[in-house]
Design a protein that fits this description.
heterodimer; A: about 375 residues; alpha/beta; OB fold (Dihydrolipoamide Acetyltransferase, E2P); Rossmann fold; eight-stranded mixed β-sheet; four-stranded antiparallel β-sheet; globular; B: about 325 residues; 2 domains; seven-stranded mixed β-sheet; five-stranded mixed β-sheet; about 35% helix
Chain lengths: ~375, ~325
C-alpha cells in the first residue's frame, strides 16, 4: 500500500485491474485504491507475474502493508505460498511497520516561511511547484515514484499550504524568488524544476533568472503560454466561501468530475478558511488575469532558458485549454495526455512521471 | 499534514491566537487562572477542566479569576463588550446559566436591536454541557435549545477539535453575543487541526459523511455517535448522510433540506431533552419545507424527558447511543404505508 500524501495512513482496495497469474510490466496500472482524499490507480513497481493477490477488494490496508506479490514466473510456488502466508499474517495482525513518508520542514526565505516535503535521496534533485490554490500534497501520486533514485522536494508557494500567507504584491517575481530562495537555502546547485499551471510560469521565471541552476524544466499545463483561460474558474475558486459553492468549480479541474470528492473540496475549504489565504488568492488572481485574458506572458522568459523543456498537457483541460500548447511549439517536446483535465498529475500521474524522467535523461545528454 | 490535538487544546489554541492577534480579547471566569493572587501556585487550574491553562502567564492582566457569581461576571463581560473589549467568559456549566438570563436574554441579545444597530456586543460565553461524567442532574444538561430560541444570540456546538478552533475564532471576531457550547465528554477527543488561525463561518453545516439512503442530522457529541451508527449501517448496505449543523443559530436549513430532498428520510439525533428542542425544530422545518420528499415519518433520537440520572448505569441508558440511531434508521428505511 503506497503512501500518497502526508496524511494517508491506509487505503482501501476498490478493484484489482490485473488478475492473479497475469504478466505485468513496470508502470502498468495494477489496482484501484481509495484513500480519504482521493482515488487512484497504483502502478506496478516491477515487471513479473502477479503471483498472489493478498488484499481483497474492499479491504482497508495500512500504508506499507503487502497487497500483492509480483515475482518472476520461475520462483517456486512453495516460496510464493510462504511469502503470501507471512504477508496475510502481517495484515491480519495489524502490525504493519510504518512507512516513512516524506520528511517535512520549513525554510525562511526573504522573511517568508516556506514549507516543503522531501522524499528520496538520489544525486539528481527535482523540485515540484504546484499551481494556484494547490499545495505540495497535490503531487501525491508523482513524488513517490519519482523519488526512486532521486531527491524530490515539493514546496508550498507563498500563500499556500503550510507556507506563510503573505504574497507581497502577488507578482510572478515574488513566487520565483521563493523558489530560488528555497534552492539557495537548501544548497541545491542543480535542479530539475517541475511546475503545474501557475507553478509552471513560476518555474520558467525562476529558470530565466538563474538559468545555470536549472538542469531541466517540466511544465504541466503551464500558465503563461497561449491566450486561453477560464477566468470564471479562477474567480469562482477565489470567491467560493463554502463547499457547495466551490465544488462546481473544482469539477472543471478534471476530465472525470467524479475525482472531486467531498474530502477534496473540504480540504480546500480548510485551506481557504485560514487567515490570510483570501488576501493571497485575491492578490494572485490579479497576477493571473487581465480582464478575462491571461495576464502572464512567460514566452520571453522561456527564451532565456537553454535547458531541456518537456511539456505535459491534458487533452480535456478546461482551465488552460491544450490549444495553449501551440505557443510552445519548437521550444519544447509537448505530450498531450488523454483522459486528463487540468490536474494531469492527479488523473494521469504516470504521464507526468514519464515526462519528468524524460527531462532528467535529456539533461544528462542521453536522449 | 496531520497535526492531532485534543478538543481542549484546540480551544486553548484558539484563545491564545486571538489574544495574541487582538489586545482587546480577554478571558474571565471561575478559576480561569485558578488561585491567582492567593498564596500558592498561580494558574493552578485553567478553569475547572483546564481549558484556559497557560494563558494567565502568557497574557498578563488579561485572564481574570472571577467570584463565584455568574450573574455578576457574565454581566461584567457583556458590559465590557459594549465598551470595546472582546471578552470570552467561561461559565463552567451551562446548567448555571439560569442566574444570568436577564443579562444574556434581555441585555446582550437586544442591544444591537434596541439601539438601532449602533451598539455591538462582541462577547463570547463559553460553557460546558452534556451528560457522561456522572455529574448528575444539575451539571449535565444540554440547554442550547433555550439560547437558540432567543433572537440576537448565536449558538455554536463544535463536534470536533477542528470545529472547536475555527468556530471559537469566528465567535471571538463576531460582533454579536455568542454562546459557545463545549461537550464535556469531547475534551480529550483528538483530531487534525491546522496550526494557523482559521475561521469556520456560522450557519454552514458540515456534511460529515455522504449517503443516499437516509439523512442523519446530529448535534455536538452526537455527531460521532451517528458516525458509529453509519459505519454499522453500511455493513448492511444502508448509506447514511450525516449532517453536523455546527451552529444552531443561525441554522443551515438549506443543507438539511437539500439532503432530505435526495434521501427522502430523516433521523435527528440530539442529546437534549425532546420537548422544544433542536430535534423537534429541525423535524418541523423539514416537515414544512420538504414534506413532498419524505418517504417515511421522521424519527427523533433524543434523551428521554427526564432529569439526567446520577447513576452511571442509568446515565448510559439516558444518552442516545449508536444502536438507537441504527434502530431509528431501520425504522425509516423499512417503513411502508
Amino acid at each position: 500500500m503506497p503512501k500518497w500524501g502526508l496524511s494517508m495512513t491506509s487505503g482501501k482496495i476498490t478493484d484489482w485491474i490485473v488478475a492473479e497469474g497475469a504478466e505485468v510490466s513496470k508502470g502498468d496500472d495494477l489496482v484501484d485504491i481509495d484513500t480519504e482524499k482521493i482515488a487512484g490507480a497504483l502502478e506496478a513497481a516491477d515487471s513479473g507475474v502477479l503471483r498472489r493477490i493478498i488484499a481483497v477488494v474492499n479491504e482497508d490496508v495500512p500504508v506499507g502493508g503487502t497487497i500483492a506479490l509480483i515475482a518472476p514466473a520461475g520462483v517456486p510456488e512453495s516460496d510464493i505460498d510462504e511469502a503470501a502466508r507471512l504477508a496475510r499474517e502481517e495484515l491480519d495482525s495489524g502490525a504493519v511497520e510504518e512507512v516513512t513518508g516524506p520528511v517535512t520542514g520549513t525554510v525562511q526565505v526573504g522573511g517568508r516561511t516556506l514549507s516543503y516535503a522531501t522524499l528520496g535521496d538520489g544525486a539528481e534533485t527535482v523540485l515540484l511547484v504546484h499551481g494556484y490554490g494547490g499545495d505540495k500534497n497535490s503531487w501525491l501520486f508523482v513524488q513517490e515514484p519519482l523519488s526512486a533514485g532521486r531527491t524530490v522536494h515539493a514546496i508550498d508557494l507563498p500563500g499556500h499550504g503550510e507556507s506563510g500567507k503573505d504574497v507581497g504584491d502577488g507578482s510572478l517575481d515574488v513566487l520565483a524568488s521563493a523558489v530560488l530562495g528555497f534552492l539557495a537555502a537548501q544548497g541545491i546547485e542543480r535542479v530539475h524544476l517541475v511546475g503545474h499551471s501557475l507553478g509552471g510560469a513560476v518555474v520558467v521565471a525562476a529558470a530565466a533568472r538563474e538559468p545555470d541552476r536549472v538542469a531541466s524544466l517540466t511544465l504541466v499545463a503551464p500558465a503563461g503560454f497561449g491566450d486561453a483561460v477560464d477566468a470564471g474558474y479562477l474567480r469562482g475558486f477565489a470567491a467560493a466561501s463554502s463547499r457547495r459553492e466551490l465544488t462546481p468549480h473544482l469539477r472543471k479541474l478534471f476530465a472525470d468530475p467524479a475525482q472531486v470528492t467531498r474530502q477534496l473540496a473540504e480540504d480546500l475549504m480548510k485551506f481557504k478558511r485560514l487567515d490570510g489565504v483570501q488576501q493571497a488568492l485575491d492578490a494572485l488572481l490579479a497576477t493571473l488575469l487581465d480582464g478575462d485574458a491571461p495576464a502572464i506572458d512567460a514566452a520571453p522568459l522561456l527564451d532565456k532558458v537553454d535547458a531541456p523543456v518537456v511539456v505535459v498537457w491534458g487533452r480535456a483541460d478546461q482551465v488552460l485549454p491544450v490549444t495553449n500548447a501551440a505557443a510552445l511549439a519548437g521550444q519544447a517536446q509537448v505530450h498531450v495526455v488523454d483522459d486528463a483535465g487540468h490536474m494531469v498529475h492527479m488523473e494521469q500521474p504516470g504521464a507526468v512521471v514519464a515526462a519528468v524522467v524524460g527531462a532528467v535523461e535529456a539533461a544528462a545528454g542521453g536522449s | 499534514m496531520a497535526r492531532m490535538i485534543s478538543y481542549r487544546e484546540a480551544i486553548n489554541e484558539a484563545l491564545a491566537q486571538e489574544m495574541q492577534r487582538d489586545p482587546s480579547v480577554i478571558v474571565m471566569g471561575e478559576d480561569n487562572a485558578g488561585g491567582a493572587g492567593s498564596p500558592g501556585e498561580d494558574d493552578a487550574w485553567g478553569g475547572v477542566l483546564g481549558v484556559t491553562k497557560g494563558l494567565y502567564h502568557r497574557f498578563p492582566g488579561r485572564v481574570l479569576d472571577t467570584p463565584i457569581s455568574e450573574s455578576a461576571f457574565v454581566g461584567a463581560a457583556i458590559g465590557a463588550a459594549t465598551r470595546g473589549l472582546r471578552p470570552v467568559a467561561e461559565l463552567m456549566f451551562i446548567d448555571f446559566m439560569g442566574v444570568c438570563f436577564d443579562q444574556i436574554f434581555n441585555q446582550a441579545a437586544k442591544f444591537r436591536y434596541m439601539f438601532g444597530g449602533k451598539a455591538v456586543t462582541p462577547v463570547v460565553i463559553r460553557t460546558m454541557y452534556g451528560a457522561g461524567l456522572s455529574a448528575a442532574a444539575q451539571h449535565s444538561q444540554c440547554l442550547y435549545p433555550i439560547f437558540t430560541h432567543i433572537p440576537g444570540l448565536k449558538v455554536v456546538l463544535p463536534s470536533t477539535p477542528y470545529e472547536a478552533k475555527g468556530l471559537l475564532i469566528q465567535s471571538i471576531r463576531d460582533d454579536d453575543p455568542v454562546i459557545f457550547c463545549e461537550h464535556k465528554a469531547l475534551y480529550d477527543t483528538t483530531g487534525d487541526v491546522p496550526a494557523g488561525s482559521y475561521t469556520i463561518p456560522f450557519g454552514e453545516a458540515n456534511v460529515v459523511r455522504d449517503g443516499d439512503d437516509v439523512t442523519i442530522v446530529a448535534l455536538g457529541r452526537m455527531v460521532s455517535v451517528a458516525e458509529q451508527a453509519a459505519t454499522e449501517l453500511a455493513r448492511s448496505g444502508v448509506q447514511a448522510e450525516i449532517i453536523d449543523p455546527r451552529t444552531t443559530s443561525p441554522l443551515d436549513t438549506d443543507t438539511i433540506l437539500e439532503s432530505v430532498e435526495r434521501t427522502g428520510r430523516l433521523v435527528v439525533v440530539d442529546e437534549a431533552s425532546p420537548r422544544c428542542g433542536m430535534a423537534a425544530d429541525i423535524s418541523a422545518l423539514v416537515a414544512q419545507h420538504a414534506f413532498g420528499a419524505l418517504r417515511a415519518p421522521i424519527e427523533l433520537v433524543t434523551a428521554p424527558h427526564t432529569p439526567v440520572p446520577f447513576s452511571a448505569a442509568l446515565e448510559s441508558l439516558y444518552i442516545p447511543d449508536a444502536q438507537r440511531v441504527v434502530n431509528a434508521v431501520k425504522t425509516v428505511t423499512s417503513w411502508e404505508r
